[in-house]
Amino acid sequence: THFGFRDVPEMDKERMVGQVFSNVASKYDVMNDAMSAGVHRLWKDTFIRRLAPPPGTKLLDVAGGTGDIALRFLNYCDQVHRDHTAQVHLVDINPDMVEVGRQRFKNTAFDLRSQVSLEVGNAENLANIPSESMDAYTIAFGIRNCTHVDRVVQEAYRVLKPGGRFMCLEFSHVDNPLISQFYDLYSFQVIPALGQLIAADRDSYQYLVESIRKFPTQDQFAQIIRNSGFYTVGQGYENLTFGVAAIHSGYKL
Ligand code: SAM
Question: What does the UniProt record say this protein does (predicted)?
Answer without folding.
Answer: Methyltransferase required for the conversion of 2-polyprenyl-6-methoxy-1,4-benzoquinol (DDMQH2) to 2-polyprenyl-3-methyl-6-methoxy-1,4-benzoquinol (DMQH2).
